[in-house]
Amino acid sequence: MTDHEERTADMEESMSSLEFAMLGGGKLAYIRQLDAQQAGVMFPALSGLPNGIDLYALVAADGTPLTLTDSFESAFADALEHDLQPVSLH
Predict the structure, then answer these.
(1) Per residue in 8-51, pLDDT tens?
(2) Is the pLDDT of residue 2 over 80?
(3) Torsion-angle region of 76 (φ positive above 0: left; ψ -120 to 50: alpha; else: beta)
(4) Which long-range contacts (CB under 8 A, 24 or more apart) does 62-66 make?
(5) What pLDDT is attached to residue 6?
(6) What are the phi and psi torsion angles at 48 (to 5°)?
(7) Whole-angstrom Cα distance, residue 58 to residue 78?
(8) pLDDT digits over 47-90, tens only?
(9) pTM here?
(10) Can you give the pLDDT at residue 49?
(11) Taking the domains of the chain in order of start, what are their residue ranges?
(12) Residue 23: CB partners within 8 Å, gap ≥ 6?
């Protein structure tokens, strides 16, 4: 197990699901790069997304998908527009 995995396991043991969901307190949003298949899972109402394109999801700290766009810059601007601090998710 890597150091990162050990720290994550320790955090999961020390935080309840509710505490973890509240992490970021409505102030943080994550920008996550997705392919069409991943976007379809995260945003099930979408269909017919073309393969081979990069998409960017803005996701609330609790994991709630907020927006989907075709550029990092647009996802970043969406976060700022909603008074959220954008953070990249790797």
Answers:
(1) 555 555 656 555 555 555 688 999 999 999 999 999 898 888 88
(2) no
(3) alpha
(4) 62/21, 62/22, 62/23, 62/24, 63/21, 66/29
(5) 59
(6) 75, 25
(7) 8
(8) 888 888 889 999 988 888 999 999 999 999 999 998 999 887 65
(9) 0.68
(10) 86
(11) 25-88
(12) 15, 61, 62
Residue count of the chain: 90
Burial 24-36 (b: 16+ CB within 10 A, else e): beeebbbbbebee
- Identity of the amino acid at 60: A
Per-residue H/E/C for the chain: CCHHHHHHHHHHHHCCHHHHHCCCCCCEEEEEEECHHHHHHHCCCCCCCCCCCCEEEEEECCCCEEEEECCHHHHHHHHHHCCCEEEECC
